[in-house]
Amino acid sequence: MSWDFFVPVCVGDLVKTGGINQYVVQDVVPVKQLPSHLSKFKAALRSQGPSCILEHFDTGYSVLHVFWLFIYFSPVVNGLAVSLPTVLTSSSLSAAERKEKLNAVKMSVFLLCKLTESLESFSYRQNIVTAPGKGNKKGKGGEGLLQWDSERESVLQALVQLLQLDIRSLWSLSLVEEEFISCVTCCCYKLLENPTIGHVKNKPTRDCIIHLLGVLITKYNHLLGASVKVIQMLQHFEQLSSVFAQAVSVWSTEYGVRAVIGEVIREIGQKSSEELAREGSGVKAFASFLSEVGGLVPELMIPNISVLITHLEGESHTMRVAVCEVLGEILVRVLCGDGLQESGRADRDRFFDILQEHLHDTHSHVRARVLQVFTRIVNSKALPLCKYSEVMELAVGRLMDKSVNAVKSAIQLLAAFIAHNPYSCKLSSADLKKPLEKEMAKLREMKEKLEEKAPVAVIKASELWAAMEPELLVTVRTTLQHTSEAEREQEDEEEGDVEEEKSEDDDDRATAVKIAQYLRVNKYRNAVKLCIKAHDWFPESEMFAALSTVTPESLMDTLGLIFKGKMERKTPLLTTDNLPPTPQKEGDKEGEDGELKKQEMLVQYLRDTETFSLQVERAIFIINNMLYWKTTSVVQEAVQFCVTVHEFSVANSISGVRKMLPLVWSTDAAIKDAVVQAYRRLYLNPQGDTIRMKAQTLVDNLSELMVDASLGTIQCLEEIVSNCYMNHYFPECFSAGKLDNEFQFSDTDKMNDRAPFRLPQDHQLFTCLTQAVAEGVVMEDPYWQSFMEQAVRLIYFLAESPDQLCSRLLQRSARLLLDQIAEGDEVNKDVSQMHDGSQVSTDQEEQVNCVCLAQLLALCGCVAFWQVSHLERSVSAELRRRRGETEEREEKEKRPGSKAKVMSCCTIVFLINLIRDTVFFGKLICVEFANILSTGGIFFLNILVPSVRQTAVTVLTQLVLKDVLKVKGQVSEVAVLLIDPEPQITSLALNFFNELATKDNAIYNLLPDIISRLSDPERGMSSEDFNTIMKQLFSYITKERQTESLVEKMCQRFRTAKTERQWCDLATSLSLLSMCERGFKRLQECWECYSDKLTEPGVYQPLLSITAKLRRGAKPQFKSQVDDFEKRLTAVHTRGLENVESPEMDENQGEDGSAEKTSARTPLPTRGRQKSRRGQNSQP
C-alpha cells in the first residue's frame, strides 16, 4: 500500500488533490447507483472483514449524504475492535500491515463519526420542523431517523471498544495525530448538543459519551481540550450543566483524572464579575454545574475552593448561591465529625463563618438558599454544637425578612433545629432558670474550695539568682573598675551609711542577711559595697574568706554563696514544692479537678439549653403570628412548624396548635386543608398495638381537645372532625355508626326530614348530669364551667322537653345556694354570741359566695342561650315537619321567630342586669339575633370583659363571612379591636379583616367611613393607634383603580373636616396608600382640597413622604413631576398659601406654555388662618 489516509479537517477536502502518497476520493457514487455499490460493499465485508473499507471507501464517502444507510459502517468498526487485539499484540507485524490497519482504522472511524454528526444535525432539524403525533407519513428518511434513535448507543459502544484498545502502536512513535482525536471528540460534543440528552430515556447514550471522552482523556491526551470544551458548551447550552457534572465526576473517580476538576473550576473562577454580568455568559449553567459537582464529589472541591470563594464578593447572586451550596456539601459530607485534624477544623469554622455572613446577603434568593443549606446541615447532624446558638439566632432574625422565600426557609430551618436539637426542649426557660442558678452556685463553691487548698507558689533561690546574675555581674564590674581616688572618696561619702550600719552586735551572719536582703530588693550596689566592707570587718569569717583578693569572680561567688545558701536554708523546709507528691494526694487532686470539669460542663450545658429555649420561645411567638398572614405558603409553613414543635413536646407549643384552629374556616382551600391535616396528624391518627388501644387513644385525644374548650373552639373542632369523616380519614377503629349519631346531635338541620332522637326526662343520664351540675354550683371547681356548658348542651339535644328539665335544674341549684347562705348565717350567729355584744353588730347581713353566685348566673345564661336555640331550631323544625304545608310555611315560621324576638328583648333586659359578665350573653346576642346585632349590637364589642369581646368578634366573623349579617358602618368598632390589649382578640380581629378582604371591594367600600369614625374628636383615639389600625387596613388595597378612587375620596373629605386632628389623620391615611402614578395625578388634581391645610406639619410631612416613595425607581419624566409637586408643597408650607406667588411656578407654567394658574385658591377658615400665621411667624 503506497498511500496514507489523513483525517481531513473538512469533509470536502478528500475530493481535492492531496500531497504525496495522500489518499483522495476518486469516484463519488450517485444516489441512483448506490444500491449496487452497497451490495458489493456488503459482500466484501462478509468475505474480507473490516479491511474491505480500504477498497470501498469511496462508496462510504458517497453514503455521507444518504443518512439512512449508516447501518453498513457500524459493523466495520465493531469488526476492527474484534480483529485488532491480535494484530496489536503480534510481534511480527510488518510496516505495510501496520499502515494497512492504520488506514482502515482512520477511514472507518472517520466515516462513522461524520455520518453520526450528519444524522444528529438532521434529526434535530426534523424534530423542530415536524411535530410528533400528527400522523405524518414517514419516508425513507423518517424511517432512518427512527432507526437512528435506537442505533445511536451501539455506534458509541463500537467507538469505545475500538479506542479502549492500544491502537497508539499503529502510529509512528505512538503519537496519535490530533486530527484523528478531534474527529472523535467533535462527534461526542455534537451528540451532547441534543436538547434531550439530559432526559432519562437518553441515559445510555449519555453514559457512552462520558466513557468515550474518559478514554480519550486518559489515553489520548484530551484533558486540556475537554476542560476548554466544557466551559464553552456550558456558556451556550444551559441544559448540559448536570451532564457535565456527571461527566467530570466519572472522569475524576473512575478514570482517576482529578486534574480535570481543577482545570474547569479554575476557568470558572477566573471569570470576572463584569463578564458574568453580560447576557449569554452562561452564569446559570456555571452555577448549576458547580452545585452538581459539589454534590457528587465534594472532597475534590476543597483544593480549588479558594478560587470559587472570590465570587462571593461578586455581583452575580447566582454564583454566590452556587458557592454557598458547594460549601454546604463540603460541610455535610467531608468536614464533619469529631475526627477532624486542626486544619480541617479551621476550614470548617471558616466555611461556617462565610455561610453565616451570607445570611445577611443583599439578595433575597441568596439568603433563602443559605437558609436551606443550613437546614440540610442540621438535618445531617453536621452542625457543631458551638454553632447552634449563633445559627439559630440568625434564623430567628430571618423570620422578619422581607422575602417570603427567606421567611419560609427560616421556618424550615427552625423546625429542623427543634427536630435534631441536642438539648431538652421540653423545658421552658423559666423551668431551666432555677436549676442553672443552683448549679452555678455549686460551681462557685467548688472553685472557692480549690483556691483555698491550692499551695502558694514559691520560687527557688537558685532561680532568683539565675535571673539577677547578669545584671549583678555588670554592677560588680562597674564597682571594681574605679580608677581615681576622687571617685572612691565620693562614693565612700555617698555610701557612708553602709559603714554606719555596723554596730557592736552585728556579726558576720547578720551582715550576710543584710546583703541577701539588698539583693532581694534589687539594691545591687549596696550589696556589693557591704560585701567588700564585710571582709574588712570580719577577716576570719569563712563566708568572706574568698575576698582576700577582690575580683569580679570571687565577689560573685561570695554573693552567690550568701544568697543561695540563705534562701535555701530559709525556704525549702517550709514548702513542699521540691518534694515528690504522694500518690494519694495526687489522686485526690485529679479527682477534684475532674469533678470541677464535670460541673463546668454541666453549667455550660444548662446555659446552652436555656439560650436554646429562649430562642425557641421567641421563634414560636413570631411564627404563631404568621398564621394569619395573607401569604398562603407562609401560613402553610407556619402550620407545619406548629405541628413539629408539638410533636416534639416543646414548651408552649400548644399555643400555636390552638391558634391555627380558626383557620379551618379560611376561604383558601390550601390553608384549610393544611389545618385539617395538622389536626389529623396530631390528634386523629392514634397509635396502638390493638384496635381497642387505638380507639382508646383516639378518645383520649378528642377528650383532651374538649377540655376548657369554648363554643368557637368546639365549632372549629366539629368542622375538622366532619371534614375528616367525609374524606374517610378516620381509622377503622372509630365506629361509623357512633359518628353518625354524633353528627345527628351537632347538625340539627338534618332533622327536618325525620323525627329527632329524644330520651325521657327520667333517664339515668339526665339524673346524673343534673345532680352533678347542681352540686357543682356551690363548689369552687375550675372545670365546672366547661362541664356545665356541655351538660346543658347535651340535655337540649337529647332530652324530651328540655326546658322543663332545665327549669328544675335551676330551681335545685338556687335552693342549694340559699341553703349555703342560711348555713353561713347560722355560723355568723354562733360567732356573734361567743363575742361581746359591744364588739359585734347585731345586724348581720346575709353573705353570699361571689364565685357560687357567678356560677349560678352562668348556668342561667347557658340555659337561656340553649333555650332560644331550642325554640328556633328544634321546635320550629318540628312544627315544619308536622304541618308540612308549603303555602303556610313562611307564615308559621314567623311565629316562633317573633316569639324568639320578644323573648330576646326580655332576655337582654334580664341578662344586662344580672349576668353582664357572662360569656353566654355575648354568644346569645351574636348568634341568635343578627338583626339586633346589625342595628345596635356592636356595643358588645366595647364591653370591658375580654371574653365577651372575644366571643362577639368570633361570631361576628362567622356571620359576616356566611352572609348572615351585612357589613355596615359599625365595622369601625371591629377595627378598634386591632389594638385591643388582649392578643387573642387582636388576632381574631385581624382574621376578620383577612377574611373580609377576600370579598370583592368590601374593605375598599368601608375605608372612608372607618377613617371618619376613628378620627372623630369625640372618640379621642390617639394618633399612634390610628396609624396602627390604618396601616393594617390599607395593606388590603392592592389595585391601582381602588387607590386612585380612595385618593380622591379622602381629598374631598378635607373640605368637611373641621379639626386639625382630622386633617392630620386624612393626610396620614393618604401616605399609607401604595401610591401609583394614577393616584399621584389624582392627588395633584385635588390640590384645592388640602392646599390651605399644608401649613400644619401633620399634613405636610405625610404628603412629603408620598413624594419620597414615588421618587424611588421613578422614570425621569415622572420624577420631574414629583419634584415640582414637592416644591409646591414646601412653598405653601413655609410661606402660606396666600403669600405664595411662586416664581418657580410661573417659570414652570412659562415652560409649558400655559397661561392658566396652577390652581384656584380657597380662603382659609378663621382658625386655620390664625394657626398658619402663628406657624409662619414661628419660622426662623
From TrEMBL:
InterPro entries xref list: ARM-like, ARM-type_fold, CND1/NCAPD3, Cnd1_C, Condensin_cplx_su1, Condensin_cplx_su1_N
Compartment annotation: Chromosome; Nucleus
Biological processes per GO annotation: cell division; meiotic chromosome condensation; mitotic chromosome condensation
Gene Ontology MF terms in the entry: histone binding
Cell division listed as a keyword: yes
A GO-annotated cellular component: condensin complex
Residue ranges of domain Condensin complex subunit 1 N-terminal in the record: 77-226
Keyword Nucleus: yes
Renumbered residue ranges of the record's region Disordered: 481-509, 572-594, 1133-1180
Protein keywords: Cell cycle, Cell division, Chromosome, DNA condensation, Mitosis, Nucleus
UniProt-listed Pfam families: Cnd1, Cnd1_N
UniProt feature, compositional bias: Acidic residues: 488-508, 1141-1150
Domain Condensin complex subunit 1 C-terminal: 946-1070
Source species, domain of life: Eukaryota
Function: Regulatory subunit of the condensin complex, a complex required for conversion of interphase chromatin into mitotic-like condense chromosomes. The condensin complex probably introduces positive supercoils into relaxed DNA in the presence of type I topoisomerases and converts nicked DNA into positive knotted forms in the presence of type II topoisomerases.
Membership in a protein family: Belongs to the CND1 (condensin subunit 1) family.
Official protein name in the record: Condensin complex subunit 1
Lineage: Eukaryota, Metazoa, Chordata, Craniata, Vertebrata
